[in-house]
User: Which sequence fits this backbone?
């Protein structure tokens, strides 16, 4: 208040300030439920992990000492980090040119090609791993091609090898790299490139001096995300890799399910968390990777003034922006002057990358119509028997029903908490937006195994381990992140003047929110619901930790069957899961509103 | 809001669970495990038991890791009444005081006589006997041609080439330990106590030749059925299932490792009496014969052999012709703890995790 005294505020200033504070409080109330939820089911479990790893109640570094003196753990940690750096590098090499290509495409084709990135992102991790098991096997399509072309005389050992594990991991992480990089590139004004050309910079020079530096925030954000999520790899390397491709996550899982050494598992998880944070600070520049602020505001300068600040900042928030731009922006795609040199090369390269992204899904869909008893490609006969096998087996249908119940309820909860939060964050004061986004998006950036171990501890204490409410609570956390991202992006595309008009005509905040804003962002809410639903419906890592005894969700049953069964029923189910986002999202898109692709 | 309210709120949000809608007859929850073994447990034991007793059985088909059992027993959050587990884990849990004693007074005398002493422990009743055997793809390695006949020859990859598989040692209680020692020349009757260091030295020699270290029964089934591997360690039941599916798989019972799977009842169970009845029912010769015919796993009740189709009987691991040179896995050794409190199982897991990254 010193400052206030110094400038001698008028009574009007005081009233304004009081009103500002009331406004801020109002927005904070919108955000509060989601923040409390995420604090309780995300921050608290992590905090609890730190406590356990220090051997609470008697504090000490014993478990860390044990970690550092164990050859097995140190070497596995080194291998894990090495593998994650490798996967990140591969994703960058494959993803950067593809993002460049996508951000330069003309409107129409652009939307469809972007869908080739978004659909795999939404396809279950398990299904994609399964697809690679099929593709890489000795009698699979890749070996078939290698043998037919005479490159190899005997089937190459692709499945159960480090190569196989790395291919699978790169494939799964690639969309996570492409989306943020693309979103930042999309915001780089083409006028700058033209200006560079006009001022005599050659295409290469213009790219290196003007375009590349501006795209770096996207690269940083993509790299940190890929690295952090890769650290949590657990099922993919176990299914595709060799004996030594054990990741830290696998050791954590065996500590919890085999040795029941919870404190040590907690210490190992904290090591992973620290690795993630170190990577954030090395590559991502701290919290910048959560929401980078680049020179993107420019693009919106011509648009309605009051929301420029919001758009410039939040639409750029890494993965959030990738998903947000790709799907919810009205103005996707415009041709841009790209150096003619290399345009075709870029198109060919990106085409191959996109082919790499979608091939596994296509192979699985084809195999699902096999008439054979065992998997083989191409199938020698065709039938719908594996679809019939799914619909005739009550255990499959039960598992599907359980997953649908959990997914529907957790989606409803996530929408209920996340939608008001998104509104509060987009319209509220800056401090609220910064802190709120950092917290509410953080669950997406922590290795899933770490989250699983944290939740395992908390849910065990609350006696919710192996129960529907337990799984539900866990799934809702990530659901909230998706809702905040997508509803937030939709809100930012909304004309603020509509709200101002409503309020100037005497409607209260709440009334404006429910009568004006809610109907306008409905398409965004529906889309967020689809993301949250698919995320819960497909979730396997966290669920496998906390559901094990009594509840068999669809992904858990698929996982069991991938290890157990020898028939292609899983291929039929996978094909249906692949189709889920393909069917759901365009359906919503057609209901109008600002959703385009 | 405290955590109980929070839980209640969340619970209220879940749609009504199908369990809640069930009628008021007594219900016990039984862990039956997954795959065709789980189906066998349901068809041979669960369904006939429900019919005879009127007690409803809720079958849990997922795997229950021993640690889950331990945690559930510790926190009292256990709501499964019968578990299937190995001799090693059963011995360990009994020592920790988690298991209710089996009430042998409700058993028929004749049925009880069919159970060998090792099959009727104070803490558990054996359900089936299974074994680890050497199985070989007979298309790739037909009987006339040279192919490994024991673990020593299996280790000799230069003389007997082929794509090999062994069980992963990640669980500790099961792993290629005995096989490795046999390959290294340890006599079959002098295996226990296992020389852990020697076992790993022996594994070093074969490490590079193993295409996949399988973790679960259907893993290995998939490996053989898809033709990825053509020789290696396998469960006898999985190998006979592959034969039944028309796959060219030969089983070698020489140096087979036989082990038992036991029913145990956690002390925390609220339906101990009904569960005792279920386990007694499942040990009867008639049910045991049915189980053997469905799964091709050997019965624990030898009385069942009178009822089993002879064509099937000769494929069971405890059939006299098959046990000429086999041994029984010593679960007690696995559960033994050293002066530092670590069990032999824990020691094996620790060595395994270090060994795989070397």
Assistant:
């Amino acid at each position: 208040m010193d400052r206030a005294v110094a400038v001698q505020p008028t009574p009007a200033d005081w009233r304004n300030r009081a009103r500002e504070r009331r406004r801020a409080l109002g927005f904070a109330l919108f955000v509060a439920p989601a923040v409390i939820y995420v604090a309780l089911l995300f921050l608290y479990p992590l905090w609890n992990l730190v406590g356990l790893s220090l051997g609470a109640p008697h504090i000490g570094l014993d478990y860390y000492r044990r970690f550092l003196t164990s050859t097995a753990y140190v070497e596995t940690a080194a291998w894990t980090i090495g593998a994650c750096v490798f996967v990140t590098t591969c994703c960058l090499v494959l993803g950067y040119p593809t993002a460049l290509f996508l951000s330069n495409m003309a409107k129409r084709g652009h939307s469809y090609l972007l869908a080739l990135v978004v659909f795999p992102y939404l396809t279950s991790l398990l299904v994609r791993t399964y697809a690679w098991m099929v593709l890489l096997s000795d009698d699979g399509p890749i070996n078939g091609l290698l043998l037919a072309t005479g490159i190899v005389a005997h089937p190459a050992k692709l499945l159960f090898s480090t190569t196989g594990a790395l291919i699978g991991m790169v494939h799964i992480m690639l969309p996570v790299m492409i989306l943020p990089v693309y979103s930042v590139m999309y915001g780089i004004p083409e006028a700058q490139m033209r200006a560079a050309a006009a001022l005599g910079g050659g295409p290469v020079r213009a790219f290196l001096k003007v375009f590349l530096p501006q795209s770096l925030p996207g690269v940083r954000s993509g790299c940190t995300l890929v690295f952090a999520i890769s650290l949590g790899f657990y099922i993919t390397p176990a299914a595709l890799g060799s004996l030594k491709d054990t990741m830290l996550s696998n050791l954590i899982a065996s500590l919890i399910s085999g040795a029941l050494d919870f404190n040590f598992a907690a210490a190992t998880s904290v090591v992973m968390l620290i690795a993630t944070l170190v990577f954030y600070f090395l590559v991502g520049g701290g919290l910048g990777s959560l929401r980078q602020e680049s020179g993107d505001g420019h693009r919106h300068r011509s648009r309605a003034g009051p929301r420029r600040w919001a758009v410039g900042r939040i639409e750029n928030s890494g993965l959030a922006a990738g998903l947000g731009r790709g799907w919810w922006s009205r103005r996707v795609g415009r041709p841009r002057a790209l150096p003619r040199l290399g345009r075709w090369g870029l198109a060919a390269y990106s085409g191959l990358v996109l082919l790499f992204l979608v091939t596994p899904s296509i192979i699985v869909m084809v195999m699902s119509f096999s008439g054979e008893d065992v998997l083989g490609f191409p199938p020698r006969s065709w039938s719908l028997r594996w679809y019939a096998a799914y619909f005739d087996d009550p255990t499959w249908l039960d598992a599907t029903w359980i997953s649908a119940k959990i997914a529907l309820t957790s989606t409803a909860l996530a929408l209920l908490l996340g939608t008001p939060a998104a509104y509060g964050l987009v319209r509220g004061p800056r401090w609220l937006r910064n802190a709120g986004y950092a917290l509410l998006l953080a669950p997406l950036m922590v290795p899933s195994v770490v989250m699983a171990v944290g939740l395992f501890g908390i849910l065990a204490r609350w006696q919710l381990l192996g129960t529907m409410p337990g799984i539900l609570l866990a799934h809702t956390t990530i659901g909230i992140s998706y809702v905040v991202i997508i509803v937030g992006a939709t809100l930012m595309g909304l004309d603020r003047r509509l709200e101002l008009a409503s309020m100037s005509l005497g409607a209260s905040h709440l009334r404006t929110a429910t009568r004006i804003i809610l109907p306008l962002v409905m398409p965004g809410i529906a889309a967020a619901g689809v993301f949250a639903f698919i995320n819960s419906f497909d979730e396997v890592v966290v669920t496998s930790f906390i559901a094990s005894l009594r509840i068999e969700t669809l992904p858990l049953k698929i996982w069991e069957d991938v290890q157990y069964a020898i028939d292609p029923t899983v291929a039929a189910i996978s094909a249906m899961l692949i189709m889920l986002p393909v069917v759901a999202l365009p359906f919503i898109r057609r209901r109008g509103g600002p959703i385009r692709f | 809001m405290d955590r109980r309210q929070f839980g209640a709120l969340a619970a209220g949000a879940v749609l009504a669970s199908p369990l809640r809608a069930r009628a008021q007859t007594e219900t016990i929850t039984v862990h039956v495990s997954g795959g065709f073994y789980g189906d066998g447990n349901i068809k041979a034991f669960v369904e006939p038991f429900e019919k005879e007793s009127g007690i409803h059985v809720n079958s849990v088909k997922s795997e229950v890791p021993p640690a889950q059992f331990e945690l559930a027993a510790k926190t009292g959050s256990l709501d499964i009444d019968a578990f299937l587990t190995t001799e090693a884990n059963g011995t360990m849990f009994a020592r920790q005081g988690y298991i209710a004693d089996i009430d042998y007074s409700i058993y028929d005398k004749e049925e009880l006589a069919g159970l060998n002493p090792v099959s009727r422990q104070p803490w558990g009743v054996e359900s089936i006997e299974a074994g680890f055997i050497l199985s070989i793809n007979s298309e790739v390695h037909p009987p006339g041609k040279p192919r490994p006949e024991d673990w020593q020859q299996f280790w000799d990859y230069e003389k007997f080439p082929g794509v090999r598989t062994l069980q992963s040692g990640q669980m500790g209680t099961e792993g290629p330990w005995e096989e490795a020692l046999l390959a290294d020349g340890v006599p079959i009757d002098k295996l226990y106590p296992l020389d852990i260091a020697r076992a790993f030295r022996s594994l070093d020699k074969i490490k590079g030749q193993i295409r996949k270290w399988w973790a679960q029964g259907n893993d290995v089934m998939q490996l053989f059925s898809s033709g990825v591997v053509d020789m290696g360690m396998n469960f006898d039941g999985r190998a006979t299932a592959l034969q039944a599916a028309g796959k060219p798989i030969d089983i070698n019972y020489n140096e087979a490792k036989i082990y038992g799977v036991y029913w145990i009842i956690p002390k925390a169970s609220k339906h101990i009496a009904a569960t005792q009845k279920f386990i007694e029912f499942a040990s009867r010769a008639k049910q045991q014969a049915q189980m053997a015919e469905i799964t091709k796993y050997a019965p624990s009740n030898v009385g069942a052999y009178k009822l089993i189709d002879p064509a099937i009987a000769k494929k069971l691991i405890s059939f006299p012709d098959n046990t000429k040179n086999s041994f029984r896995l010593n679960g007690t050794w696995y559960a033994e703890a050293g002066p530092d409190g670590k069990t032999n199982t824990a020691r094996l897991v620790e060595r395994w995790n270090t060994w795989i990254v070397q």
